[in-house]
Write a structure and sequence with these properties.
mainly alpha, 15 helices, single chain
Length: about 400
């Protein structure tokens, strides 16, 4: 039952406007959402999620076999069944978030980012340890705070950098650089060098868009090289992964196994559930699912997936061209950098072109918190890129936005 709506002209007269049915309000909301949402972007996301279901179904028997013991047998499709549940939950999260306004998306991103940053401080003390790394907190399921911090980081940085429109003299780039330095330090304690590099990529794209001078960028780039060198010299996790990538080895040879698996099926693949090399591949349903796709569906299918990721990234960037809201421009760029960067790092690892990083393939790999985090990211991206198709936008560079702001009374 809906409450009556008062008309200001009828105040004191005792007359009311007829109530608006709840169903009609929902229909109007969905109609506006459908008009403003980027349908091409949404379609590309759904296609990749569909490919993910088939890929996890192909990889699930291999991972289940490795998890089984002589006393307890794990069902071949245990991971596939769980993946369906996580995908449905993620889809609900993504669609629900896409209904948010930009202001609500900004507030939610800041809130989630602050909560996950707080959890990142306590992960080294109360987190679960897996494969020598302490990155997860048990909350009924394994939650990796850094996964949800990625979209929060992009939103917070975009919000801080957008202050430059109001006051060009604010040192906002130094603010977000210090924020990135804090997060990178916390990630190295886990250890989690891969995510630290991804956060660095998000930071780099956003500060460049915000107008960082190239001279300062060169100085920071040199500092980054020095930092990686020191990490190799004094940080065991980084040294082992780099050595394993350059020279192979028995303890860090997953990348070699992945490369042999991805090429085993040739151009067209062996067929669904007919691959054999995947049975010896660790983390076949998560980190190395791209190799399973290569073996069972062929290199042509791998190329199609790469094209789909490129199309999704380019579509999001195209949507941001001409955007006259600095926060929306920076936030959208940061979110799509996170998504695209994670996807292509995972693919390069499977192709033996990058050291192993322990990153999942977004929308395709099996995962609990990782799947929900990716859908959370894309839900915010869909909300931020929503726009009324009938409104013209001025667009322009950061300097143009600042000058227009100063000219307005």
């Amino acid at each position: 039952m809906t409450a009556p709506i008062y008309s200001p002209a009828m105040r004191g007269s005792g007359n009311f406007l007829p109530p608006v049915p709840v169903q009609r309000r929902w229909r109007d909301m969905v109609r506006v959402w459908w008009r403003e949402i980027d349908k091409v972007l949404l379609l590309l996301i759904m296609v990749l999620m569909g490919i993910g279901m088939i890929a996890v179904a192909a990889a699930s028997p291999a991972s289940a076999d490795q998890l089984s013991t002589a006393k307890e047998r794990v069902g071949d499709f245990m991971f596939f069944k769980r993946h369906i549940v996580f995908q449905l939950m993620g889809l609900a999260v993504m669609i629900g978030l896409s209904f948010l306004s930009r202001e609500s998306a900004r507030r939610l991103g800041i809130l989630v980012g602050a909560i996950m940053l707080a959890l990142l401080f306590v992960v080294p003390f109360i987190g679960e340890e897996k494969n020598g790394a302490r990155r997860w907190i048990n909350v009924g399921m394994s939650l990796q705070p850094s996964e949800f911090l990625k979209p929060g980081f992009a939103i917070i940085c975009a919000w801080v950098l957008s202050w430059k429109v109001r006051d060009p003299n604010l040192p906002v780039i130094w603010y977000v650089s210090a924020f990135f330095g804090l997060i990178a330090g916390l990630l190295m304690l886990q250890p989690n060098l891969g995510d630290a590099i991804l956060f660095g990529g998000i930071w780099l794209v956003m500060v460049l868009l915000a107008g960082m001078p190239w001279q300062r960028l060169a100085v920071m780039g040199g500092a980054g090289v020095v930092g990686l060198t020191l990490a190799y010299m004094f940080y065991d996790n980084a040294r082992h992964r780099i050595d394993g990538f350059l020279g192979g080895g028995t303890a860090f040879d997953q990348v070699d196994l992945a490369q042999r698996t991805i090429t085993a099926g040739g151009w067209t693949g062996t067929g669904l559930w007919l691959g054999m090399r995947k049975m010896n591949l660790p983390e076949a349903h998560t980190d190395y699912i791209f190799s399973v796709i290569g073996e069972e569906f062929g290199l042509i299918m791998c190329a199609v997936i790469v094209v789909l990721y490129c199309a999704l990234v380019m579509r999001a960037l195209t949507r941001l061209v001409g955007e006259d809201n600095l926060f929306a421009l920076l936030a959208g760029a940061g979110l799509i950098t996170q998504f695209g960067g994670q996807a292509f790092i995972n693919i390069l690892v499977n192709l033996k072109l990058f050291p192993s990083k322990g990153m999942t393939l977004p929308l395709i790999s099996y995962g609990g918190s990782s799947t929900l985090a990716v859908c959370f990211t894309l839900g915010l991206l869909l909300a931020i890129t929503r726009r009324n198709p009938f409104l013209a936008r001025e667009g322009g560079t950061l300097r143009d936005l600042i000058e227009r702001k100063e000219e307005r009374p």
